[in-house]
Design a protein that fits this description.
27 helices, 34% helix, two-stranded antiparallel sheet, 6% strand, disordered N terminus, single chain, 736 residues, mainly alpha
Length: 736
């Protein structure tokens, strides 16, 4: 039983103990706090529990502020560019009248301005309402506040909005530049000119558009942000997808020092010694000599530097020839481009001054100059989106080349990567307008993450649109570079084949197998008569680069095989060169031509094009009397005859005339340019095989005589004259 009197004693003792502890810290300044305790009281005659609050105001000592409230990462931040109060980024307006950071600059050049932009000061989100006072940098409060931590999207100067971001959304509000394709075109239109029609018209009302500084996010998101000047009719790389875990601003840069976390880079890039070596990085997805200097070991950084030099030289030529006023550039003096008063091609004393700003701009020169500046003002351009920058420089060079008296030779320059890494091409950009996802029916081969999912889970589901394939698409471990293992691969026909258990080439044929087969075509035709025109028939497309289907021949029935005929199976080339990875460079994808030349000594082989001249058989398959042409020539002749036979057949059965366009879906059209719709089963089978041959450019090498068998039988089915031709035997002889 607890009595009220004793209870009061216990309370008093507790308070005395508390005060004693406080007194032990008497060297510190006291702090007043309220202490509340809830006790239970029991009355002897009639016990009940009565809550009693006992409150006392006492003075307690707290630890020194430095021990409990040190600002996390303050030391790291203090040494960063964000904290450099003497930097031009924060003192530029000190001598201005009024001495303040203007509203259109305050967002990124002061903490009050950024808080204003966020609406953390009570104003509306997304705009700076007032100039900011001088004296602040990018301080802790700018990024660490209730609004900033919830940011998940960013709107770029082009008007494009990138959503679904994490902590990096804070970085990207400022590191996005201040201009875009839209800005440049607007400046041209505002000068009374057309960005396309008046390309070489000089206008005193047209000036230089500046991307601004450190526009890392614009570089990184490429065409999604349109930070560079993108030329009409061209496609560009989107966001550069680095490997998982190192694909955001804050996963690559320390968010407080801003420095690249170099030690993390060395996990994969094991040959790096220090941060200076980052410029030397070049991955297997960059096996193209962009700048044409013959050096494909140099880092992408140096490819960009050389391409910018090429562009600058051409800009100077164009400015003198077309604009009539020589031009020079100084990256340290605003507005950067100046009149080359003495015509010596360099910046002489006094030329890099505002009164001497360049004044003979044409739309074409303004577009190129903008991209030139874009390629300079992001120091990390080579890592953030180097290939996007290369495309901008290439296109600017090509544009100027159209207008100068003596164009430079661009034959050795390159704009795009090889197929797997050609992020600007249709194979990866097709779904950009479709909610940003590649559907499950396409994602295995047209997204970076589709094949790994298929390898590990055996399924294909929708995936985000990708910037081409990347290391993690084929490699399950990015430290040891082990491949995902496939022991066998199932083709569209349902057949399962393999190059051997765990062979690397099995990875390739997961995608290089086409999407249709003999069975697909037969199912589409159903019970229709051979020459019956049917409105419900639709073209069946093999898809692209079905090299695996060609190589395995009748084992997978990728081409349409006619009932009752025998066809060749897997093309067994010589032992050391009988699968994908033994004949093709696994990253560049190109045939290893030098290896072919070692055996095929009867043909002069210097380039991949020369491989088309290879033949071993002396049989005149196409009946043209030439037994010296390569197997590729035999196939081409028969394909041409097939196209003629198709057009003749269509007319003979009363169907619409048929026209083929290899670059336009659905490939077959009537003579009015509309998608072809008067198919018969015979014509559909023929069109399928014709397309098959067009879409495997290496068919002559993958399984040449299988393809000739298919073409021969298709011609027969159309009623064409094959009397001078020879159908290869079903049993393989060496042919390619």
């Amino acid at each position: 039983m607890v009595y009220p009197k004793l209870n009061r004693i216990f309370i008093l003792l507790g308070l005395l103990l508390f005060l004693g502890l406080a007194a032990a810290a008497c060297s510190q300044e006291p702090e007043t706090v309220e202490v509340t305790r809830v006790v239970e009281v029991e009355v002897a005659s009639d016990p009940v529990e009565v809550p009693v609050e006992v409150t006392r105001v006492v003075e307690v000592m707290v630890e020194p502020e430095s021990a409990v409230s040190t600002i996390p990462f303050q030391e790291q931040w203090a040494a960063s560019g964000h904290a450099d109060a003497s930097a031009e980024a924060f003192v530029h307006w000190n001598e201005e009248d009024p001495a303040e950071v203007p509203a259109d600059c305050a967002k990124c050049h002061s903490t009050p301005g950024f808080l204003d932009f966020l609406g953390a000061d009570g104003t509306a989100f997304g705009a700076v309402d007032a100039a900011a006072p001088l004296g602040s940098t990018v301080e802790c409060e700018a990024c660490h506040n209730d609004v900033a931590i919830d940011l998940s999207s960013v709107v770029f100067p082009s008007g494009a909005e990138i959503t679904g971001l994490g902590a990096e959304a804070r970085c990207m509000q400022c590191h996005q530049g201040r201009a875009s394709t839209v800005s440049v075109n607007d400046s041209i239109v505002n000068a009374g000119l057309d960005p396309q029609a008046d390309l070489d018209t000089v206008s005193a009302d047209l000036g230089f558009t500046n991307i601004h500084y450190y526009a890392a996010a614009a570089t990184r998101f490429g065409t999604w942000a349109m930070g560079g000047y993108e030329y009409e009719g061209e496609s560009y790389d989107p966001k550069f997808d680095h490997v998982e875990g190192y694909d955001t601003c804050t996963s690559c840069h320390d968010p407080h020092t801003l420095e690249v976390q170099f030690d993390e880079c060395t996990v994969c890039h094991t040959d790096l010694r220090d941060a200076e070596d980052l410029v030397d990085i070049r991955m297997p997805g960059s096996l193209v000599d962009y700048d044409g200097d013959g050096d494909m070991d140099e880092g992408v950084f140096f490819e960009i530097e050389d391409m910018r030099t090429i562009l600058y030289d051409l800009m100077q030529t164009y400015a003198a020839e077309v604009g009539g006023t020589p031009l020079v550039y100084d990256e340290l003096a605003y507005p950067y481009f100046f009149i080359d008063s003495d015509g010596d091609g360099g910046v002489s004393e006094g030329e890099a001054a505002f009164p001497n700003a360049y004044n003979a701009w044409t739309p074409r020169l303004a577009q190129a100059a903008y991209n030139y500046q874009v390629s300079l003002k992001d120091p990390g351009r080579y890592a953030h989106g180097g290939k996007y920058i290369i495309q901008l420089l290439y296109d600017s060079t090509a544009s100027l080349n159209e207008a100068v008296a003596t164009p430079i030779d661009m034959a050795t320059l390159h704009r795009n990567d090889h197929g797997h890494f050609a992020a600007s091409e249709e194979a990866f950009r097709h779904w950009d307008e479709e909610e940003g996802f590649v559907p499950g029916t396409c994602s295995k081969c047209h997204s970076a993450a589709g094949l790994p999912l298929f390898a590990t889970e055996g399924v294909s589901i929708s995936q985000p649109v990708a910037s081409g394939l990347n290391c993690a698409t084929c490699h399950s471990n990015l430290e040891t570079f082990e491949l995902y293992v496939f022991d066998e691969v199932t083709f569209p026909s349902g057949a399962t084949v393999s190059f051997g258990e765990g062979e690397p080439a099995n990875t390739c044929i997961n995608c290089h197998q086409g999407r249709s087969s003999t069975g697909s075509v037969d199912r589409a035709i159903g019970e229709l008569g051979d020459d019956e025109i049917a409105d419900n028939l639709r073209f069946q497309n093999i898809h692209y680069f079905a090299a695996g289907a060609t190589l395995f021949g009748t084992e997978v029935k990728g081409a349409y095989e006619y009932a009752g005929n025998e066809y060749r199976g897997q093309n067994e080339h010589v032992g050391a060169f009988d699968d994908c990875t033994e004949c093709h460079d696994t990253h560049a994808l190109e045939v290893i031509v030098a290896e072919c030349a070692d055996c095929h000594e009867d043909v002069e082989i210097e380039t991949a094009e020369d491989l088309r001249n290879i033949r071993v058989s002396e049989v005149d398959f196409d009946g043209d009397g030439d037994v010296t042409e390569g197997i590729a020539g035999e196939i081409n002749t028969m394909a041409e005859l097939l196209y003629t036979a198709m057009t003749d057949y269509a007319v003979s059965v009363g169907a619409a005339p048929i026209v083929y366009d290899s670059h336009a879906y659905p490939y077959f059209f009537n003579d009015a340019g509309e998608g072809y719709s008067t198919w018969t089963p015979t014509l559909l089978r023929a069109a399928y095989n014709y397309q098959y041959v067009q879409k495997d450019p290496g068919a002559f090498a993958h399984n040449g005589q299988y393809i000739i068998q298919v073409l021969y039988d298709t011609l027969v089915d159309l009623g064409a004259d094959v009397s001078g031709m020879t159908r290869p035997s079903p049993v393989q002889e060496s042919d390619s």
